[in-house]
């Protein structure tokens, strides 16, 4: 598969289902990331993998000059329609950003860049477009948390990943981020947090919701659609996962990592 074909496949995946509704479930992550990044008036801010604007919109409300970028134009259009403040919406590949070197004071990504398949390329681009002394701030699902474990459940049923790709939840591992950024950042902070999600009520409702609405889950089900036994097994595995993370009345805590660092000169 060529790189162009891979990116086209990713666009289609995130445009499937109803990702804006899923993004609304995790909306609190955006303001938390903006606060951790210290974004404020007059700063030049780039949000990579912005989706519908969970982080870009609260960043813009601080008075920052914000550009929201994403590979999937369908998500950007939703964000633009919802916008109550001024910012720029730009289609862009996280692994080949169409911006100048050192163009931004702060570069953020809220569960966005973690889904770029080639982590080294994406990290290099975040660094390139951030000015020396500027801030890079990321919110990512952890491997051990609920969403990270969901991807582990999906893996045996998914198509083989493209060569050179790395699982998305690795961005939620501080050691992996240290290997990606190394001495090119300083003043690193990495803190784990939990998001309480009480939307579903039952484990079965969660499995059905993600089966219908979340692009990566939809893609996996399409991969096994011709095998009813495997479909039933995945249904059961997702339901069991939700039960294991149930903290009462169908609510779950979804762990994520907020990581910040300053680009060295």
From TrEMBL:
Superkingdom: Bacteria
Gene3D superfamilies: Vaccinia Virus protein VP39
GO function terms (MF aspect): methyltransferase activity
InterPro entries the UniProt entry points to: Methyltransf_11, SAM-dependent_MTases_sf
Record keyword Methyltransferase present: yes
Domain Methyltransferase type positions: 46-137
Gene Ontology biological process terms from the UniProt entry: methylation
Coiled coil: none
Alphabetized UniProt keyword annotations: Methyltransferase, Transferase
Protein name according to UniProt: Methyltransferase domain-containing protein
Organism from which the protein derives: Actinoplanes oblitus
